[in-house]
Amino acid sequence: METSRHSEKNEDSGSSRRPVDISDWSRDRVRQWMLEINVAEEDADILYNQGINGDALLQLKQNYLLMQKLSTDAKELIFQHKDLQKQKTQHKNEITCHPFNRFNPAHRYKENRKLAVTETGLIDLIQPCHEFKEFTRQEDNIMNQFTYEVIRFAAACMNIRTNGTIHFGVKDNGEIEGIGIPNKDDFNQQQSNAIVRHFYKDYVEIAKRCIKPPRFVEVLKADMKSAGKYVIEVDIEPSSIVCEELYFDTYNVEKNEDKKKKKKKKTNKVDKSFFKRDSSNTRSLITADSSKEYKEYITPANMQRLSQLRKDAEEKHLSVVKHSVQGSKLCEMITGGSQSLDRSHFAWYILVANKSHPVQLENLDFLFYMDPVAVLDFDPESAESGLNKLLEERKTSNVHLPAQYKVTGAVEDISNKLKLTKNTSWVFCNGGINKENPSDVDNWLTEKGSSVRDVVSFLCRKDVVHRKKLLTIFLLLSQVSDANDPLLETFGMFLQELNGGNQILCISDNETTYTYWKDLIKGRYGVDISSRCIYELSFAEVNGTILSLWSENRKSSRFLPCGGGSNVVLPQKTEQSLETLSVLCVNQCDGGNEDKQKHQENFYKGGKVSWWNFFFSEQPGSMPFIKRDKLDYIINTIIPDIRRRKRACEFFNIFHLPGCGGTTLAMHVLWTLKDKFRCAVLKETTHDYSTVAEQVVQLLTYEKKEETTQLPVLIMIDDFCDVEKLQLKIEEECLKQDISSNSPQVIIMKVESCEQTEGTDNAIFIGNDLSKREQKLFEEKLKEFKKTNTNTETFYGFMILKNNFSSAYIQGIVKKTLKGFNFQDKHSQLFAVLVLLHVYCKNALLSVSACEEFLGLQTKANFEVEDGFEKFSTLLTRCTVDSNITFEGMRVIHSSIAQHCLKELSTSLGVTKADITNLLLTTDSFYKNALGKQKLMQDVHNILVKRQYSAKDEKAFQLFSPLIQDIMEETPGKEETVLNKAAEKCYRKDVIFQLLARYYYIRKKDFTVAMSWANKAKYLSKENSYICDTVSKVLLSELKHALDEAGDDPIKPDSLDRYLKLAEFAAEACKETQQTADKEAASRRQRLNDYNTYNTAGHLGELQTAATVIQILQKRLNSDFTLNNCLTQVLLGKITIEDLSTKKPVLKQYCDVLQKHITFLLQLKNTMKQHFVFFDSFFVNLVTLVDGKEKHKLTMDMVPKYFQQYTDLFWEKKKNWSELVKNECMNCMVKHEQTRECLEMNKGDSYTGLLQYLYEKDSASTLEEIIQQYNFILESQEARPMDTVNFIYANVILAKIKPKSKCIKPYQDLCELLIHHTTSSNCLPLHYITVLLLWQEANLELPTFVSKMKESYSAELKPVSNGKRAAIHFYLGKDKRYGGLISHRDINSLLGSGQNISIQWDDEKICKKVRKSKKLRRVSGEIIDNLILVADVNVRVDPMFRSQLRKESGTKVKFFIGFSMNGPVAIDILCVKKSIIRL
What we know:
This protein is of the alpha/beta class.
């Protein structure tokens, strides 16, 4: 026989599946219950077989025969636990009465529940007796009924000197019914009138003091929503000092007022009554038959006795003022012992609250400042009238339903979507939003309990919050008296997740609520929560106590500057809405009580500077913060220069060697200028640039009137952000917000670590050598430390700078600290991992919680992570990470320290980089439910994958990441193990698979394995063209490797077959990459925030494949020139393979192979030509949208080399066209064919090829010959439409390179050629040259030509133009004809070497130089619908920078004209005056 061994706790758990009321149990439920309470199975079966259900169980004692069959033990267990269960049933339905003689609006009753009291008589005079009246509104004369019952009950209580409460809206059995009340004031007035009518006039005032005004207790439905009804309660308090020895007759007290009036008219007598409480009833001692009892009762002796009894009872029950320590207990528990919420032990607070009342909300101000990570709100009306409505007025919160917390993907992605730790997450746990209905107590667990458990589990995850830093506060705003209450269920969830109640705090404002709560928890979970409860303080006292734990800085208003010395308040809600920015206010640290020593030690040790460091340095008696030399230069030179520019958003760079103070300098700039700019730091965010731009512009425009001059925003960003893309988005947002900008409205200060570089007008560089002035300041600071007896032993960050990065100093620190290092120790392993992360990835770290778990400290409450690192902790610092989730992390204090540590570990301690990397990759605790997991995985991904530009060639990337290359050098072969482990661990498996493919084809030359990894990567990312391209890279590498292996020996036929097969496969793979890139480009155009450029790898790969085939045919097959010439003829289709074998028998052995691949070979020339045309168009017609390293620079340098191979194969020698054209023996057709070959060799056969001459030196002679060649072609019948267009281009370009050349046609002749030609063709080059030449002629067709040019651009170049803009090749000059066309090269020559006008038109210095040259013509126009109408030619043009364009239509402007491939653009726009357009 098996018996259940469940504890009481488990019994409760099982009972949650059964109805609480025994009478609702089936016989199966009864049997299950008996087994749970350890009744023997034989006894349980006896009752089961007799069909005993819940009702029968309650009557078991009456079933004598059945009782005889049960064992004694069974009977004892059944009756003992049955009584306990009956108590639960009773307890479930009971609700406590409102406190006597108090008005607590938060105390509400629940409909259909029973009051925990019965109708009673005299108890002890102080405890009130109770009387219930159902009092439905259907009764006639409701007010008469009310006053009748109140007067009777009041007089009865007063006459026996007992406190009492009469309840209206409650059934006789105590069940809450409630009454709908239209006007509460009527009851108060009618009660007062009734006292006057029914009491003796000398006793009216006494009666009013005893009979309290009606109290209206709100009634709630089962789902906690208001029922719209009330229970009316009247308290009676006949205190001895008021009633003395008096007795109280009442007069004319009758239930039916109308009947009473008629009776009075008939008898004209006063109807006197004397009521007293008799048990649970009220009766009058004066009856129609006798008044004897009345006379005996009112004797002086009896009244004196009653008065004395009342007085004695009052003295006995006098409230003794207890000495409460709960105020200090609250301070201790809510701060974790720090006694300050500014420096609280807890970093995260979760608030759990139930139904509130508006009166309570007045005393919950502390919630505004607490900033809980989440609020679990069980009030379905909270958004309308409760806690949520209160906080929404002043705080930003994100409203959620519990279902949103179900883990369906990456935890940090869900956290980011929920904006967890950014703003308070408000979770409605019982409906109330999104049309979700609330549940009643009995159904909540089944309907909503599961999803709320998901919320609790999510909020307590180790990869969401640092558990040791979490406090959950249960705010009991309403009484919890039901065993099934959702709040009680939720408490149990937190109890399980947090492994006990030590991180739970319960707050109520009265002992009754506390007692119910404590007892329910004890009974349900077996936990004594009393030590974690605050209940002796009112909410006003709780509020004041908690508010006192914050400094004035945290509670006071924060201000933004507005210019002219004025400020504006920045409300907390507005600041929280700027979630991507950390705003620096004018009064940033004023009134704070931060620990100066702690901030100072953290910073000078090597931690990141905080605003407090600057604040403390400005306080009296403190030495000023060390001012770096570049500070004044930035403030007095760079920023003023930038403010003279015209773009809405500008930026400058602070480059610095790692650890040299670049970030500190930037923050010092912000601190210095915080009253002159609206300053902020961009958090490390995953938000798209549009969101950041919106919030930056919101900060710019907040509380600014249109007519006032806006203070610019000065924003600092670290080098995790692409500043150029952000700049564009901010300008777009300014345009949306109608913000005109004759000067920058937003200035971005980008801090970027780099190697040695030179400063420019737009950038400064901070190196590792201090100036003499800076050295002196550091010396003075050190003296200050000594004066104040500051321990500087671990101020390594400060001392490294002071010693100018002395290697000897750093090495000494490292050797001393690492002495005794043992890689077998956990803390040594973890330290080595942090060192590796710091060296190879800026800002990489491990979360504190991940470190604690690795070191086994997560269960040690008073053990900090620094203690776990032992002596290595001196080289580590904490920092806060603002990523998807905000958390604390550990990192090495300084980059130089990290580099020396890594070197020491390798050279002296035998710990290799491969060892540390393998540890990093194989330690599951770093990645499984670890806080900061996603950032760590991204950092690990970066150190494995991210390559840097080669030191030898800045256009080329290194083959692998620095870490992988260092591992190859230190422990050759170990990198393979590292990469294979990375494939198992890293989250971007497609990229890691691609890396493995690259490793195997570049390093190992194992192309089979490489192809396997490439295909795996491609399978995971079919839509990624860069991943797709890996397949072609493997094939092409295999082809090149095979050729290298063959050496200079002639190729055998079977090898040739293999090579050509590989080439064909590679070409097909490249075509697939091109198709994927086209799809990518199409999708990017749909995404507004995507500035990634078109991937040309597929085009380049196919070109490389063709060039390799040329190499095979040209050099490796046979070096004989005549044989190569024959092969060229085959590729051109001029001779067949059969002819080849006949003409050159030596090639006969290859003919079968060549014939097999003839289709591929015959396409070779056209394939290469198509790609040359593509690249010419791509690089000539488009320029990068943002300044920076050209992504395609290496491709731009490689294409000319392939073009040279192309010409070497298909044209055996450079033709002398002058001799060729004079050869009278040559056929005319042959002359034309060879003339076109000459044009193609010189790239004169396309307009893009011709435009390249505009940017080359010494190109005039070639252009002159090209013009002559086109003259020859145009004179014949073989001319094509594009020949005329190219001829015009050649003339225009030559006119700008060699204006005096005799080959140049007159400008007017070209215009006439165009006019006759424009109707015969419809293409971009024709429309561009037409607009360029006819602009000066003010041709009436210009608007049409411009429109056609834009259409052609969209069709031809838009698909590949993402992240780029149309190039400007010419500008409108002041002169006429050719002199009116100013080339791009002409402008650049004015600016000096290294300058590029295409990306510097926003620079006021550059614009001044251009204006000063007086080469460009400034034209007039007016703004119409976000475009500019050019007055002279009636053409609408786009501005180069839309943010410079004021939106008011009719505004007159002057500007320069640039001719881009996407139409003319307005540059250097100057506003003339404002006017109204006359229609």
